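cron nightly-structures :: item 1 of 1
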Amino acid sequence: MATTEDQSFITNQSIFTKYQTAAEICNRAMEAVIAGCIDGAKVIDLCKLGDKTIEEEAKKVYSNKKSIKKGIAFPTCVSPDRIICHVSPLDGEPDSELTLKTGDIVRIELASHVDGYIAHSAHTLKIGATKENPASGREGDVIEAAHQSCEAILRLLRNGKKSYEITDTVQKLTEEYECIPIEGMISHAVHQDNMEGEKTIMLNPTYDQRRQVPEVTLEEGDAYVIDVLITTSDGKLKPHSGRTTVYKKNVETNYQLKLKASKNVYTEICNKFGNMGFSLRAMDDSNKTKLGITECQAHRLVNGYPMLETKEDEFVAHYMFTALMMPSGPTRITKDFYDASLVKADHEIKDEEINNLLKTPVKKSNKKKNKKKKQAETKQ
């Protein structure tokens, strides 16, 4: 069984409500950024829009309870074309000039929290796609493969399921589209103030990960952020040349910093962001931060989220969702913004086992309970 703390959203309605509230904030921010993804839009403006929306929506909830912290759990990242993830530029830097154009495949990622309970989401779209001119060919394949992978995983978030069953299912599903999950990416169980719980799910583990990372059993009371990155290439990414701007405090490391600038930066990180992800853009003085963050990262007081890129003429789709494992089945709390009318894949799923899984209801049926209830009423 999961621990009492992990089951708390099942037994404690207020915690479940905080998860749901965080998800509502996350959904509104995602909706705003998606609407802003048009030809000519600047990436930095969209990142600021997402962060501002989270902050403004967070101010509206639990406003009479000052002790409850809420806001950004992971900064808005808008990653276009070959740059796959973690693009959240700083003003005045080269990446701040990144502009979306018609035909770009764009990946959006952001997260919010209420009292440390996290809702994390990612979405992929093609700029300018319409019902008459959808994302098609290999672009359509990879987007649909990623979306269907999410649908399959959601149905496998069941009490007693094994993590590597999810791994094998997604690999089998993506093969139907001649695609593959990005190598080494990890989905985590989440807890209050903890974005990276011990339980993990990997969709395409490396050889070493297969040997070193134990299989886990999913349980009611688990909360997961499912991270799905699917590619048309060989599953490998390489670092992008741009500056890393997204970080998170490493709670497992202690070190006495030497530089005053570094000490000031780390103090601000602890006080302002706690255990949540942040962009250097959100620091009080981003220029001074550039110096201080270097020593912090060198001694692993913070973890950086570098920008990664794929090969030329290859495509990657990114979706994330947050789900709570309830007794009645998994509850997806972040919204699915996928629009099937804007995607036309060349391939389709022909595997009978995968198709049957996708037809499975997400929630347990209440028919048996209702039948027993009617039988009992008849006997009275």
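cron nightly-structures :: done
The longest strand covers residues 70-80.
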